[in-house]
Structure formats: structure tokens, C-alpha cells
Design brief:
By secondary structure, the chain is an alpha+beta fold. Helices cover about 20% and strands about 35% of the residues.
Length: about 170
């Protein structure tokens, strides 16, 4: 069997697939290509390959460094901006209609240094992936509980005082 993990209902898969995302200013936009987020040990591997193989990127993030995971379903605001900018031509109306019709789903993994964005299809088990990722982060960031030494056996104290002398 080539793949040792068979997909069963309810099983949490350690990876999700989709398209990469980019941030321009404060707007999230999908990029062309393929992306994968995969949990490997105590790291999150993010692989991105743009269309036509022009760019390939591998990001390895320690799961301990993950601050938050965001799962978003929303509109693509760049379509509205593009529609308003081209409203003088008839094509602007098409972009504005697409803004109201299309919804996208994406996941954002926040770290102190970067934001990893992946656009996914509704069929991906993203909630399970996020839960698995945050549980692993919580385990790795939990303080180590020191082992307690077993109590020493109680011994009877011996009298080390010198015996009284008559004087």
C-alpha cells in the first residue's frame, strides 16, 4: 500500500491542499499555483509551487511559534476595488457582480514573523487540521512538570547528645 493513511470519515488528516495566498496591504488575494500545509513532527511544512514552475517555496515553521490559526469564509475585496476602478467601462459591473456571487475559503496561520495563507476547497477537513495543529502547539508549549523525588524513608532519630555525667 503506497499511502499508509487511508482517508476515513472523522479522521484528522495531517495536511491540507489548496492555492497559496498573498497579502497586498490589508487585502488577502489568492495566487496561482498549488500549496500544501503538512504537520511533520513538531513543525508545519508549507510547500508552494506557482504556476508554470516559476517559483517554488518551502517554509518550515516550528509549531511552538504559532500564535493563532484563522479559518475565513469571505468575499474577495480586490474584485470590488477592480470593479469600481473599471466602472466607466462595462467590465466593472461584471467584477462587482462577481464580488457578491463568489465566496472563498482560506486559512491563515499567524506566527511572530509571517502569515501563512492557503485558499482551500470546502471539502477539505480544515477544522480538524486546525484543532490538531493547536492541540499540538498547546502540548509543545506546556511547561514541563518536574518529577518529584520519592520521599526518603523516615528513620528514627538517634540521640547524639552525650550522656549526663554526675559531677
Amino acid at each position: 500500500m503506497a499511502n499508509s493513511q487511508l482517508s476515513r470519515p472523522g479522521q484528522v488528516m495531517p495536511e491540507i491542499h489548496g492555492r497559496p495566498g498573498q497579502v497586498w496591504g490589508s487585502v488577502v488575494i489568492p495566487a496561482s499555483g498549488k500549496a500544501t500545509m503538512r504537520i511533520v513532527g513538531d513543525t508545519l511544512h508549507t510547500s508552494t509551487k506557482t504556476s508554470y514552475g516559476l517559483e517554488k517555496k518551502e517554509i518550515h515553521t516550528r509549531i511552538q511559534n504559532i500564535d493563532a490559526v484563522e479559518v475565513v469564509e469571505g468575499r474577495l475585496w480586490w474584485l470590488l476595488f477592480l470593479g469600481i476602478a473599471t466602472l466607466l467601462w462595462v467590465i466593472g459591473i461584471v467584477f462587482i457582480v462577481l464580488f457578491f456571487v463568489l465566496k472563498q475559503n482560506w486559512i491563515v496561520v499567524h506566527t511572530p514573523c509571517s502569515h501563512l495563507i492557503l485558499f482551500y476547497k470546502k471539502s477539505e477537513n480544515v477544522q480538524g487540521f486546525c484543532t490538531n495543529l493547536l492541540n499540538l502547539s498547546r502540548q509543545l508549549n506546556a511547561p514541563a512538570i518536574p518529577r518529584q523525588q520519592p520521599p526518603a524513608q523516615a528513620t528514627r532519630p538517634t540521640n547524639t547528645r552525650p550522656a549526663p555525667t554526675a559531677g
